[in-house]
Amino acid sequence: MRLLVTGGAGFIGANFVHQTVTHRPDHQVTVLDSLTYAGNRASLEPVASSVELVEGSIADGPLVDRLVAEHDIVVNFAAESHNDNSLRDPEPFLQTNIIGTYRLLEAVRAHGKRLHHVSTDEVFGDLELDDPKRFTEDTPYRPSSPYSSTKAGADLLVRAWVRSFGIEATISNCSNNYGPYQHVEKFIPRQVTNILSGVKPKVYGAGANVRDWIHVDDHNRALHAILDGGRLGETYLIGADGEADNLTVVRTLLRVLGKAEDWFDFVGDRPGHDLRYAIDAGKLRTELGWTPQYADLETGLAATVAWYRDNEAWWAPAKAATEAGYSALGR
Ligand code: NAD
Ligand code: DAU
């Protein structure tokens, strides 16, 4: 099996490559990644001898066409992924998330290859804090930010290519991931590396926003389950019943790191900040028999904290520039 993993030098993609190389030694893995600020060769270092890394963009039509022709399955992780960046400069989000997905679709159509498109629960917009509902595969799309609207656009392109051209594709929409190799711009690694650097965590608004946290390895196990047994043309939601508000997450991190639980700052809120995400992963669980292995958020967070404590050489080079960007926004 020849697997083309786009965005495989980013957070979830790199963890997917590690899991694939470890548990599927018969798979041949190529990573296509343009190594933006979020892509990091060092994240593939432990598996470098088993993986070919091609530096290039999913928006480069001829390159994508050649690579897709040489592989059996494409798993598309490549994206601009950070909401705060999409508020600062949306254009790269349109180029990668929309045009890049379009180029992949045209290549899998031309060569009759299978595509799995990795997406987000943010395409559904947000829920009220006290709403008993959770997102399902039937929830209408209602994205809020430039990031989530470009992911929604990409998902709709995939659906249209399935229906109009009969391409073999599946889509997954996952909730918030945490784990090793996540860029320090994101909430959990930002706070962990702040605390490790002697700086207080920064909580947007009142900290009441809820995210449905899942360990990245559980997400990637779900992706393998979909690649193995997912029905073509279908969408699967991925989530591990990990709802927690941001204050709870920060206090847990402070506790794990031996600090007082009130040692953090409130900072200005993100414009348009989605209130709550929550996933009903019933279809994935019943149809494909997937269950998360990290049932408990605190255990997963403790393992993640340990990873960042042990891997300062991986995150330190990006820390100062990331914090300078947040300072400019007053956050
Ligand atoms: P990330 O920002 O850590 O990694 C993205 C990777 O894509 C980087 O390696 C980057 O260099 C690469 N990339 C960007 N533009 C590219 C281009 N034009 N061509 C090739 N490579 C390019 O993101 P992530 O958190 O690993 O997310 C991966 C995917 O999963 C994204 O599609 C995201 O929307 C989705 N997702 C993320 C989460 C989450 O919590 N992080 C949850 C659900 C879904
Ligand atoms: O739901 C899936 C999505 O989760 C993915 O599609 C995105 O790629 C991923 O970035 C993530 O989006 P969020 O916007 O939810 O993640 P982020 O880590 O930026 O923020 C998580 C929550 O923490 C959110 O409510 C904003 C808040 N936050 C974030 C930062 C960086 C803070 O309170 N302080 C911070 O410093």
What keyword list fits this structure?
binds nicotinamide-adenine-dinucleotide; two-stranded parallel ribbon; Rossmann fold; single chain; 13 strands; alpha/beta; 331 residues; seven-stranded parallel β-sheet
How would you sum up this structure, described in words?
With 331 residues, the chain is α/β, with parallel strands linked by helices. The chain has a domain of 228 residues: NAD(P)-binding Rossmann-like Domain (Rossmann fold, 3-Layer(aba) Sandwich), CATH 3.40.50.720. The chain is built from eleven helices and 13 strands. A seven-stranded parallel beta sheet has the order 3-2-1-4-5-6-11, sandwiched between helices. The protein has a two-stranded parallel ribbon with strand order 7-10. Strand 1, helix 1 and strand 2 form a beta-alpha-beta unit. Helix 1 packs across helix 7, helix 4 packs parallel to helix 5 and helix 6 runs parallel beside helix 8. The site of 2'deoxy-thymidine-5'-diphospho-alpha-D-glucose (DAU) has 19 residues, from helix 6 and strand 8.
